[in-house]
Amino acid sequence: MNFHTPHPLQPFWNIAAAPLQVQALEQALSLGLFDMLQQAATADHVARQCQLDPTATGLWLDLLWSMELLTRHHLADAPETPHYRTAPLALRYLHTASEENCAQAWLYRARFLTRFAGQWETLLRQGFDMRGEAAPKGSWAQAAREQIGQEQRAVTVPAVLRLLEMLPALPQTGRLLDLGAGPGHVGIALAQRLTGWQGVLCDQPETAMVAQENIDKASLADRLQALGCDLNTDMPGGGYDLIWCSAVLHFLRDPQEAVRKAANALNAGGLLVLAHAEQTDDPGVAARVLPFYGTVALRGNPLPRPGAVAAMMKAAGLHEIQSLGRIDFPMAPVWLHVGRCA
């Protein structure tokens, strides 16, 4: 008998164990463990520092070690007492001093999904209530400054800059629009890469204020401005050579009209780039998409079928439409579509 062959139910045992891992990581972030363990320490030392039970602390640290968030080693003079230290992965993404810190972003997603999961019976019987426990809490401005800001800086910006290399060559000068810019880090990164360009970052008014703060911090106020607008009804002017729009169509009442307005806002030869999650017939990919975008469909907003976004671009009059396929963004994959204004 081959004991190395996983049982068919193993994936389901894994997800049964996941809540314990989630809580272990949440406690680590709440107690500042990854900051504390820049220098190696024993479980007893951590327990004293945090006023915890030593036995439970040892198991907790071993669990985080098994998740590759801590390293564990034994000193020659104390082989029975492991010493723990923050692993490089946690140091990069979960340490408060790191420029790529995603701790608040992860906590936001984890807590939202936990609330959502706890509402399954109600959701199945009554549907989604935007005022219910499963609905996101807090203001968009606060989320833009904290959770969404962290995600953009550490996750989206590096991916978007890599995607630039896949696009047709852009001119030395031009105007860009980040449609649904959030805190603006993507538009700022595009402007920093496209040094001869100017642009507009557009989102709801309270979020646009955060984007303008970030523009000012980046010393780009001479080339970029943030505008508050209702993306269901407004399009901030025209004359753009590049429009970037990511994860926005899901939340609009009429995505086709938004794509039409974006196409009309382009200069001749300008590009519209749409990056959005989609439904898929691949169960492995769907397992990454649906936990994060399932609430979109429950709200009655679109989670496009394959080909739907390209069809919207064609209906809006764009040409040279290219579907560049699935881009494996961290968290959930998106599909990238590019169209050119004639």
User: Strand share of the residues?
Assistant: 15-25%
Assign a percent range to the helix content.
40-55%
Describe the largest sheet: 7 strands, mixed
Q: Supply the CATH class of the largest domain.
A: Alpha Beta
**Termini separation (Å)?**
64 Å
Low-pLDDT runs of 5+ residues are: none
Number of strands: 10
**What is the domain tally?**
2
Strand order of the largest sheet: 6-5-4-7-8-10-9
Counting DSSP H or I runs of 4 or more residues, the number of helices is: 14
**Broad shape:** globular
Named at the architecture level, the CATH assignment of the largest domain is 3-Layer(aba) Sandwich
CATH superfamily of the largest domain: Vaccinia Virus protein VP39
CATH-defined fold name of the largest domain? Rossmann fold
Would you write up a description of this structure?
The chain is built from 14 helices and 10 strands. With 342 residues, the chain is α/β, with parallel strands linked by helices. It is globular. Helix 3 crosses helix 4. The model has no long low-confidence stretch (mean pLDDT 91). The longest helix is centred in the first third of the chain and has 21 residues, at 10-30.
